Amino acid sequence: MAGEFDKVYQAAATNPSQFWAEAAQQVDWMKPWDAVLDDSEAPYYRWFVGGQINACYNAVDRHVEAGRGEQLAIIYDSPVTGNKGSLTYAQLQTRVAQFASVLQDNGILKGDRVLVYMPMVPEAIIAMLACARIGAIHSVVFGGFAASELAVRIDDAGAKLVVTASCGIEPSRVIEYMPLVNGAIELSQHKPEKVVVLQREQCPVQLQKGRDIDWLSAEQAAKPSDCVAVAATDPLYILYTSGTTGKPKGVVKDTGGSVVSLNWTMQNIYNVQPGDVYWAASDVGWVVGHSYIVYGPLFGGNTTIVFEGKPVGTPDPGTFWRIIEEYKVKVLFTAPTAFRAIKKEDPNGEYVKKYDLSCLQSLFMAGERLDPSTLQWAQGKLGIPVIDHWWQTETGWAICSNCLGIEHLPVVQGSPTRPVPGYEMAVLDEAGQPIKSGEIGALVVKLPLPPGTFPTLWNAKQRYFDSYLSKFPGYYETGDAGYIDENGYVFVMARTDDVINVAGHRLSTGAMEEVLAAHPDVAECAVIGVNDALKGELPLGLVVLSSNSQRSQDDIRAETMQMVRDRIGPVAAFKLIAVVSALPKTRSGKVLRGTMKKIADNTEWVPPATIDDPAVLDGITEALQGLGYAQGDNIPT
Ligand code: COA
Ligand code: AMP
Fold it and tell me: Is residue 420 part of a domain?
């Protein structure tokens, strides 16, 4: 209905407490809240203070009790193994309740941290829900990260137990998880006491006596555990994300806010009703997986899909369409890079035509900017609304979106539409002054952030304040730059920090620089994100060797690539590296990463007035050209 969006948006803006209290009535509480919003410690805000709730109960048990026990909760489809399966809500309840007992039998109490390092199998969801059931805090780590990244997360979270599988499966290879888990535990200062292992037939492993537990036999022997009441403000999970240094940020999500907000988004943003099949083709290791493979669709009583495969090559670019047809998917959510991969292999959409996609009502994209050519291709081939929406690990749900369940606003290419009810946005200049409409500045959100967004960083309240709240008092600094047009549409243009987006995965160039700097022959280095036609961005390293280095450039390139793979993980996709004689700097010594990126992407650039030695840029241009950049044919749009 025309005007409906404005009405809902205004309701959330003028009386957030009433708005979110109404949303909170849609979920089940063990004890109602005393205050919807506690602002007594602003700029730190808390939602639903005094309330008690359980996220697993809201995701699983309440649907069984409401008579939806026989509805499918999870569909598992794994083109990499050839396996398919499903779990009804009743079956999911049994498995989660028994696995929760396994955790308890192995010493896990309310508030303990459990690290989950799992491939895309239903057990990944079971592990997360089992933690939520007993009030333990899960910290899921994406399978593409290396042992040392796992170790950093074990240490920071103080994980008491690790839940893992014997392997993950990539199209080209089986990834043995146990050497990674063992390596991480060896590296970590804090030692988890137990490791629960899901044995997969592709790679059974020898379990360590006294430490390791065989998942399935333990689950079968366990008695079901009940949901415990936790404070609405208690953490549901910690999810580490890239910051500006090698030390990732432990983004915390609280329980009450997550249940209320994610449940609200299912109908209001995605326009799905209980019983609808909703598919987020992502990974449980990312925030999209937490919010929209696991919690959101299950809170909403939907059927969620656990897909263990890739958009292409498993076995062909028709996989997504097969899944949509086979399981009657109503809404698909994925990253633009997945569609670019499909489009590259099937530009004319021949595979799209082979399937009946009449069930699919909308496609949502996030994780990176939706470039107009991908938007047009998707819209043209599917003939349904293609919705770009913008969000972050920190917020857990969309800051800006076309809210299809409220009102379908006109789509404007290049924009994730307008702020979602609950988010009030501004664009500020360096001095914190509002910028006039249409001009680029820092995208910020007025405090308080709505429920379900991060109330803090794990054990790092000061870092939370310094990273997000200090620069623009009264606002949350998103780390993205962009503008808002005269119709209130937001345009997200770039990051303001050194975070890059590789195939929808958020990575820190600072963390990669720390790895390169550890190479004994590297005197100086810089990593920049360069545009890439498939993955959106790719990291590119420039290194200056120490004067006494005797090694060949080929050796240095191979070794530094391997170091990033070993220390950060294959997901960094760090394969571009050039040896240069010097890095361009300002007279005060600041490396000109932005200028190098512009040269690489062949966008307009002028040497900054503060540059120390402009001639250095010639060497950089030559090196970038040697890698196929600085020529302008690598840009997605
Ligand atoms: N476990 C172990 N390794 C993993 C992994 C996992 N879960 N996921 C990826 N990797 C590895 C890959 O095997 C690859 O290794 P390689 O260098 O040996 O080939 C490397 O990490 C990079 O992987 P990826 O980024 O997936 O690149 P790709 O070339 O294999 O596939 C796409 C390209 C576009 C098909 C793929 O990136 C994709 O599906 N992207 C969608 C992203 C997405 O859903 N993001 C979620 C945010 S919304
Ligand atoms: P992550 O925390 O991994 O979800 O990454 C969040 C970052 O990805 C944001 O801060 C943006 O830089 C980028 N991002 C996510 N969605 C979009 C989008 N729709 N448009 C532009 N950038 C996006």
Answer: yes
Instruction: State if residue 571 touches ligand 1 by the CB under 6 angstroms criterion.
Output: yes
Contact 242, 248 (CB under 8 A): yes
Residue 498 near ligand 2, beta carbon < 6 Å: no
Ligand nearest to the backbone CA of 569:
1
Question: Is the minimum distance from the CB of 371 to ligand 2 under 6 angstroms?
Answer: no
Mutate to test the pocket of ligand 1, among 290, 310, 323 (most ligand atoms within 8 A of CB): 310
CA–CA distance, 41 with 37 (Å, rounded to integer): 11
CATH of the domain at 137: 3.40.50.12780
Sheet containing strand 441-446, edge to edge, reads: 425-428, 441-446, 475-484, 490-495
Of all atoms in ligand 2, which is nearest to the CA of residue 394? 2
Query: Could you tell me the distance, in angstroms and rounded to a whole number, from the CA of residue 313 to the centre of ligand 1?
Result: 12
Q: Which residue has the tokens 């030559």?
A: 622
Same domain, 154 and 263: yes
At 635 the pLDDT is: 56
Ligand 2 centroid from CA 251, angstroms: 15
State the CB neighbour count (10 A cutoff) for residue 394.
Answer: 24
Structure tokens at 523: 């005197």
Examine residue 351 and state whether it is found in any structural domain, yes or no: no
Number of domains forming the structure of the chain: 2
Average pLDDT per block of 10 residues along the chain, 637 residues long: 92 98 98 98 98 99 98 98 98 98 98 98 98 98 94 97 98 96 97 98 96 98 98 98 82 98 98 98 97 98 98 98 98 96 96 98 95 95 98 98 98 96 97 94 98 98 97 97 96 90 91 94 95 94 94 95 95 96 90 93 87 92 94 60
List of residues 6+ apart from 24 with CB closer than 8 A: 33, 36, 48, 51, 256, 260
Task: Starting from the CA of residue 442, give the closest ligand.
Answer: 2
- The range of the structural domain enclosing residue 572 comes to 503-626
Asked whether 307 lines ligand 1 (CB < 6 A), one says: no
Q: Which atom of ligand 1 is nearest to the CA of 313?
A: 35
Helix (H, G, I), strand (E, B) or coil at 627: coil
Give the residue whose CA is nearest to atom 8 of ligand 1: 144
pLDDT at 637: 44
pTM of the predicted structure, to 2 decimals: 0.95
